[in-house]
Amino acid sequence: MNTLTENKGTGRVATPRRLNYPIFRRFSGKILLLGLVAGIIPLAFLLFFGVFSQALFRDVHQSLSDLKAREGQRLESYQHKLIHQQVRQKALDVAQDISEYLKSHKGKTWEQILKDPAFREVAVQPVGMVGETFLLAAPDKKILLHRKHTCQGQSLEKAVCLDEFKAEPPNFHLVDNFSLQEFSLMPSQGGDSYVHGFLVPVAGQPLRGPKLMVGAWVDRGEMDLLLAQSRTIFKTTLNVSETLIENRLVQFRENLFYVLAILGLAALAVSLALARSLTRQVNKLALAAEAFDQGNLGYRIADPGRDELGQLARTLNRMAASLNDNTISRMEWENTFNALPDQVIVVDAEACVTRLNRAAALYLEVFPEEALRSHLTELKQPGKDWFPEEALAQALEQGKKTQTERCTDDHHTFLVTVDPCRDLKGRISGVVFVARDISALKRMQSELAKASHFLQQIIDSAPLGFMFINPEGLITEANAQVCREFGYVPEDILHRHYALLYANDAEHQQVIAELAAKGEVLARQVEIRGGNGTTAPARLSVRTLTDKDGGVIGSVCLMSNITEEVSLQRQLEQAQKQEVIATLAGGLAHNFNNLLMIIMGLTTLILEKTPKDHPIYEDLKDIERQLRAGREVTRKLLAFRRASSYEIQPLNLNNLVETTADMFGRTRQELVIHKELSPELPAVEVDSSQIQQVLINLLINAWHAMPQGGEILLRTRAVHLTDWDDPNWELEPGPHVCLSVTDTGSGMDENTVSHLFSPFFTTKEPGQGSGLGLASAYRIMKNHRGAIQVISTPGEGSTFTLFFPSSTAVPLDVAPEEKHIVPGQGTILVVEDEPTLRRVSTKLLEKLGYQVMEASCGERALEIFAERNGEIDLVLLDMIMPGLNGLQTLERLRALNPRVRVILCSGMDEAKEENLPSGVSFVPKPVPLEILSQKVAAALGS
Amino acid sequence: MNAWRKWSFPLSLGLFLLILGGGCQNPFRRPPLVGIISWNQELQSIRDNCQGILEGLREEGYLEGINVRLEMVNAEGDRARAAAAAEKFEAQGARLLITVGTVPTLVALDSTQGSRLPVVYSAVGAPNATGLAWEARDHPRFTGTSSEVPVVQHLEMFRLALPDMKRLGILFCTATPVAVATGTAAEAAARQMGLEVVQATVTDERPELVDQALAHLLGRKAQGVFVPDDPVLSSPKNLEGICKRLLAARVPVMVPYGSSVAYGALLSYHADFAEVGRQAGRQAARILAGTAPDQVPPEIPQVKRLTLNLRVAQSLNFSLSRRLLSRAHELY
């Protein structure tokens, strides 16, 4: 174990003894040793089995060898005994047979017996394959009969020597018995016990023959062959058994090889894998520790595993991550601290600097290391003192957090936050100063305020009503124009739903639908409910506002009161109607003038032929006067038609009043119109048609105020204004012309008078008035820099007085004075499409003394003029003709003769002198004879 | 870590080999190959000899397919086939070559000349006469067991069967050296035994030649005909014809192989070919066990057998002696 022990007395710490070999200094070596030891145990068992099998084989081999030697010897000994018994038995049998033979052949001598083949067959017999018998003499043991003739007569030892091919006769070990003798070689002569034999005495004795003895011995070679067979079989049995056992053991060892090989490889692989796995984990830990030691806290141990080492690795990973996070946090904090644009200074309880960031150091021009432990007051720089010492004292003593703005001498403004720091026990351990340079912010705020003010001014001063509606539909912004145009006070509409503005819910829904479809509503006319309960037409434009992400933040709404515009529109429509009427009137006047011209011409011609005392003369004069009255009527109609031309020109207001009053009086017989017209009235520069409309409106209102009839006083006069107190009208002091219309109607109260000029304000029944009459009069008078003064008393009538700036110009509407008839001479070409009128004109001109040629159209006139160019002195040319009109004919006539004298005539009276081509006179239809004579004479220069 | 990488594998491998070498048997070790080339398999004696070789090997503990691989090739009397077999065995890395018969032995020695492949011969009829004894003495890789039974013993046994025989006929083919050697030896031995010899030879086994030789023997009044160790004339077909012709003339025939007696010969005194095979097998086993071939001396047959054809004897009206009959090993 790695526990340390401390030596008593010395205090030295001694480490326990360890294996100091390099391989064991490493964990991998230990693991390897462990793996090898773990692998050795089963391998050792298997090795034991292998060695055991080898030993077993050796033991079996030894046992079989011993068995082969010992049991082989026993087997041979036993076989020897069997053979010996067989040989001994054969010897006994042969001895018995010889004895029987001798008994049966007692009469034969020994020599006869020896020659007897039967005796020889009996005495010398083979003992199977292993031996043979022979006959010998008992006393000296000399062989008498033997298979080998060479052995006959030899002693037993000598015969054995011959049979065994030995040079020296052996010594026999003789075992004597009465009936059987056994001999064998002496042990000293090789101990070969195979040379073995038996001697059996024969009962009886042949006649003259020796005592016989039958001998039998073993044929060594044959017995060897016999024994060899059994020995071979025995040996084969043992060797085969040994081989089979060995083979089994070999197979076992082969199987053991496979088992060992597999187990060994498996153990090796497992050991290597285990070692590698463990050492890999340990190496990972070592590498991780080394990396952590070198500061690489981002290093992580991959695949930590599930064992204890894996747990250790995961713990190290977590520790490293935590440490890394802390380190990173600290570094990030340091970086953030130093990257802060605000100056941050941390002081302790003694106001000594413990930390300050780069911004503070740069501003105070100190090094952060040098500033540490310095007292706060030592950091003060001239002109850069933003330290709120009072706040520091409050923070240290009372723990109060303060925030103040400090301006330094270098024109910087700082927002200084002084926040006390507390330790873990809650005691105040220091103070943190955070000084944010808000100079730019201040400037931006100032500029923003200016811009905001400017924008607000624009909104407030805009001639359009401006509103901002938030997503909830509440009006959050509305400029003054909205209130002015629609009569609201801000409190009426701010933070209220915009729907209150709509007077017509259908229009409201249409606006919503269009806004939803298009995202905007442009210049839509709607009815807006005003603050005083009235409604007014307005032009509304709404556009949805979105933020940068496309979210709707509200809508901006522009609207303007278009009451006047609508009024003008209606007036325009009315004027267009009047234009149509005027056109019709012009056409009627033209035709009527032609008729009057004919009648007037014919009447003139008749009067010229009729004596004054003729009874019809006065009638004709009456006709002529009525014709002149008719000519005035048509002239007024034409004047009414000209009134739609909208042009400012100096006028005598009396003419306008008379014309208008005469025309209006003819249509309203229940009214009595009085006129008090000043004869010395200065001219006024007005548009006669508009002033005529104003006057007609006033007359109509007066008529409406007097439905049962009454009196109207029209009065003109010149005034000189020195003071004017009505704020609705801006009149400059000076000479003015007044036209007043006074009725004796119902009159009006003050409230009615105050709204009198508002558009669509009317006191009439529905369908009787549009409410635009006085509104348009108001606008017309405004345009003429004039004014309307209203004086009314309920029940007594009203007086509307129009003020016009007077003009020094000469009025254009002064009527020419009539003169006498001027006769003349010359040739006049009368161009007139109306035949009767052409004929009357011809007769009138002829009556004046002129020669007259007629042309029915412009083209005919051109032909005549071309034919009789030099004869024609004057062309009386009608302006309105089918085909070439008067002006076109004039142009072509001038193309033929630029000096041609032309008088244009027309019943439309639209051709004024100043608008005609130069050198051309104009005669309106119907023209009296005297005027015609004057015009013709003037044209001819006579 | 470096130490681990440096030593882990050698240490592990060394330990593994140590354990493996301590108690295991190499499973990739194959039993030694022993090639056996026989001249032909028609003769029972050759088959017995081959069987004896297997028994001899088995006696010494070598079992086919277990600890020795035995591959036997029958040359079918073809020298080229015998030579090809010898070369094939040498090419296959045979541990030992066993030849059965004189001709395969000579062919094998010639084919494997210059090689160290041990050759154990068996059933070689006359190793001295064919020079194989000299080969064995000069070439340490060569040993074996011959089937030679001294011609004297043949003739003594023939005389025991025919005690009255005075004129002996000898018939052999000069195509094989063993036949010439044994034939020549038989002539000499017969003359020493006081027999008159009538010798007839053929150069090949053509029937007319054989007939001519038989006619010569019969013309010379041969009382018995001895066919020495002759691979050509000892073929069953030739021998059957020879015996039939001579028996017709009431002339008994002595043949070198016991199995040949069945084809009409009277007797045969011969080596026990099975025992010769066992002797050769034991010699081969000693060499397989590691003994150098020159430490294994050539052997002669330890067991000789007498085979009698009683039917032929009866047909010839011969009375075989009790001694002869008792020594007979096999009777037909």
Quick gist of this model?
The complex is a heterodimer of chains A (942) and B (332). Chain A is α+β, with helices and mostly antiparallel strands and 942 residues long.
Number of strands of chain B: 12
What is the helix tally of chain B? 12
Structural class of chain A: alpha+beta
Please give the share of residues in helix of chain B.
40-55%
Hey, roughly how much beta strand do the residues of chain B contain?
Answer: 15-25%
Shape of chain B: elongated
Query: Approximately how much beta-strand content do the residues of chain A carry?
Result: 15-25%
Description of the molecule:
The complex is a heterodimer of chains A (942) and B (332). By secondary structure, chain A is α+β, with helices and mostly antiparallel strands. Chain A is built from 24 helices and 31 strands. In chain A, the strands form six sheets. In chain A, strands 3, 4, 5, 6, 7, 8 and 9 form a seven-stranded antiparallel beta sheet that branches. In chain A, strands 20, 21, 22, 23, 24, 25 and 26 form a seven-stranded mixed beta sheet that branches. In chain A, helix 17 (653-667) crosses helix 18 (688-705). With 332 residues, chain B is of the alpha/beta class. Helices cover 45% and strands 18% of the residues of chain B. Chain B has twelve helices and twelve strands. Chain B has helices spanning 2-23, 44-59, 79-91, 102-111, 132-138, 151-161, 177-192, 207-219, 236-248, 273-288, 310-315, 322-327, and strands spanning 33-38, 69-74, 96-100, 119-124, 142-146, 167-173, 196-202, 224-226, 253-254, 267-271, 304-308, 328-331. In chain B, strands 2-1-3-4-5 form a five-stranded parallel beta sheet, sandwiched between helices. A four-stranded parallel beta sheet of chain B has the order 7-6-8-9, sandwiched between helices. Chain B starts with a helix and ends with a strand. The relative contact order of chain B is 0.14. The model of chain B has no long low-confidence stretch (mean pLDDT 85). The A-B interface holds A 22-23, 26, 28-29, 32, 36, 39-40, 43-44, 46-54, 121, 126, 128-129, 147, 225, 228, 232, 235-236, 239-240, 242-244, 246-247, 250, 253-254, 256-258, 260-261, 264-265, 268, 271-272, 275, 279, 283 and B 1, 3-4, 7-9, 11-13, 15-16, 19-20, 22-27, 55, 58-63, 66-67, 278, 302-303, 322-323, 326-327.
